[in-house]
Design a protein that fits this description.
With 140 residues, this protein is mainly alpha-helical. It has one domain. The protein is built from 6 helices and no strands. The longest helix has 35 residues.
């Protein structure tokens, strides 16, 4: 019973997180466009907007962590496993719709995040060159 409530609560939170990730993706595209135009005012405004959305995602992550740690260790690892799948096929491998939904949303979040990180990496390196966070920390 607690497992089903946790999955339902996590699904609601992950849907919210996905919506916020789509906002970050859109704002990142706006940042990229404003950088191409050398529009520092717009770039700064979009960076601030993105930071606000990131803070909302941090809040969602904190709420999710409370749910993950609300039960015993076995439940924690079970729920974490649902959030950490790598392929859509893994999500389709379960017969439980609530698990499938949570896994698919989690996978979508990670896919959006990968795209945002790639764009961010290119922009960061273009702006800062060898002083880029990604160059300094040797992140590929």
């Amino acid at each position: 019973m607690i497992e089903e409530k946790c999955i339902a609560s996590l699904t609601v939170l992950m849907k919210k997180k996905y919506e916020q990730m789509l906002k970050i993706e859109s704002i990142t595209n706006d940042i990229e466009d404003s950088l191409k135009r050398n529009d520092k005012v717009s770039t700064s405004m979009f960076m601030n907007m993105r930071m606000e959305v990131m803070e909302q995602i941090d809040d969602i992550d904190e709420q999710a962590e409370k749910i993950l740690t609300s039960g015993d260790e076995e439940l924690y690892y079970y729920l974490k496993g649902l959030l950490k799948i790598d392929t859509q096929e893994q999500a389709m491998d379960t017969e439980y719709q609530d698990e499938k939904m949570l896994m698919l949303i989690s996978l979508r979040i990670r896919n959006v995040l990968k795209g945002v990180i790639e764009k961010d990496k290119v922009m960061n390196q273009r702006l800062l060159g060898k002083d880029s966070f990604y160059v300094k920390n040797n992140i590929k």
